[in-house]
Amino acid sequence: MTYRIRVPSKSDPLDEAHLVSGMERFLLTLQEQRRALLVGVGVLFTAGAVVAGVLWYDYQTTEKARELDREATLHYLNRPADDPKKAQEQLNQAITLYKQVIDQYPRTPVGPLALFHLGNAQVLANQVDAGIETYKRFLLLYGNNPALLGLVQQRLGYAFLMKGDRDQAAKAFTAVLELSGALNKDNVLFELAKLEESQSRPEGAVAHYQNLMKDYPNSPFASEAAVRVKVLDPKKAAETTPAPAAPETSTVAPPAPPQTTPPAKPAAKAKEPAKSPSPAKAAAPPAKKKQE
């Protein structure tokens, strides 16, 4: 009995997936994942709207903070010099507006500058304790702001000096020297030197002046520091300043004064010779005596 071997056909029937093009397959995938895609698009739209709203809100709050800061600065700068009462009123208005900026918009870019100006205005209005607290608040809130941190520390030192606390003032000034981005280190060195002078410590003052001249030779305080070093340390000034040359002494004898000869006396007049009698008189006989 013979058996026939079945040979499989070489061509398989194509399924439906092979009969459609790539674009049609993409459209079919979209239809299958339509719900998930709609959810994703909605999430992206919502996130974009939220980000845009936050940015718009920040822009609006920043503009309002700038407007208040601008108004406060006008009151601060436009104080009349010939009217102390009105000047004080302007200063109080500036303080009020600066406080509004800090309380309402503390996280805006205007906040650090407004807080710094508030401390300056309070110290100027003789509210020294309030100014010191404002400067300390700045150090806590904006301690990572190198541009203003050095200026705040310097102003804090001035405020302590107004209260007579020299030790705290020295600490505030020294803190500026430890800041990497501070731009007022030359000014602070000069203030530390003056502080040493006021306490009758010329050695410390000279050291600060010398550091100022060495590290910041182009500073406007360097020339004044050089003058103070000469005043406080005369020995060092004598070493650095060349002594004037002494006048040379000549070994040649001075010329003798000119001899003055007395004027010659005029020659005495020669005696005139005696007059000889004339020949007529000599020949005449002597006259006879008149007889009585």
Describe what is shown at a glance:
The protein is an all-alpha fold and 292 residues long. It has helices at 16-19, 22-32, 34-77, 84-104, 111-124, 128-141, 146-163, 166-177, 185-198, 202-215, 222-232, 234-240, 279-283.
User: How would a textbook summarize the main sheet?
Assistant: none
Taking all Cα atoms into account, the compactness measure Rg is: 55 Å
- Report the strand count: 0
**Structural class by sheet pairing and helices:** mainly alpha
| Count of DSSP H/I helices | 13
Distance separating the two termini: 253 Å
Q: What proportion of the residues is helical, as a percent range?
A: 55-70%
Approximate shape: elongated
Strand content: under 5%
- How would you spell out the order of helices and strands? HHHHHHHHHHHHH
- Poorly predicted parts: 240-255, 264-292
Mean pLDDT: 80
Overview of the molecule:
With 292 residues, this protein is an all-alpha fold. It contains 13 helices and no strands. It has helices at 16-19, 22-32, 34-77, 84-104, 111-124, 128-141, 146-163, 166-177, 185-198, 202-215, 222-232, 234-240, 279-283. Helix 3 runs antiparallel to helix 4 (84-104) and helix 5 packs antiparallel against helix 6. The longest helix has 44 residues, at 34-77.
Secondary-structure blueprint:
Elements: H1 16-19, H2 22-32, H3 34-77, H4 84-104, H5 111-124, H6 128-141, H7 146-163, H8 166-177, H9 185-198, H10 202-215, H11 222-232, H12 234-240, H13 279-283
Helix pairs in contact: 3-4, 3-5, 4-5, 5-6, 5-7, 6-7, 7-8, 8-9, 9-10, 10-11, 11-12
